[in-house]
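Put briefly, the fold is written as integer tokens. The lines below illustrate.
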Amino acid sequence: MAAAIYVLCMLTALACAWLLLASYARTGHRLLFWSGLCFCGMTLNNLILILDKLVFPRIDLLTLRLVTALISVALLLYGLIYEKE
């Protein structure tokens, strides 16, 4: 059951990233770009979670997961603070 939840979370983040970046391509609003990049990072984070918990359970990938989550949130925070409309 955990594997299904991990995969569904990754697919949801991927769908959000795709929708946000497609909307950015249509409208050009910069906040959509930064949000899309954040969700791309969250998709990568979920992929690393799947690798950590299911594929390589003996290898600890927690640090890599935390770094990708931090970069993803930092991208969104940058977009929220420094992009002005």
Notes: The CA atoms of residues 6 and 50 lie 6 Å apart. The longest helix spans residues 2-27. The chain has three helices and no strands.
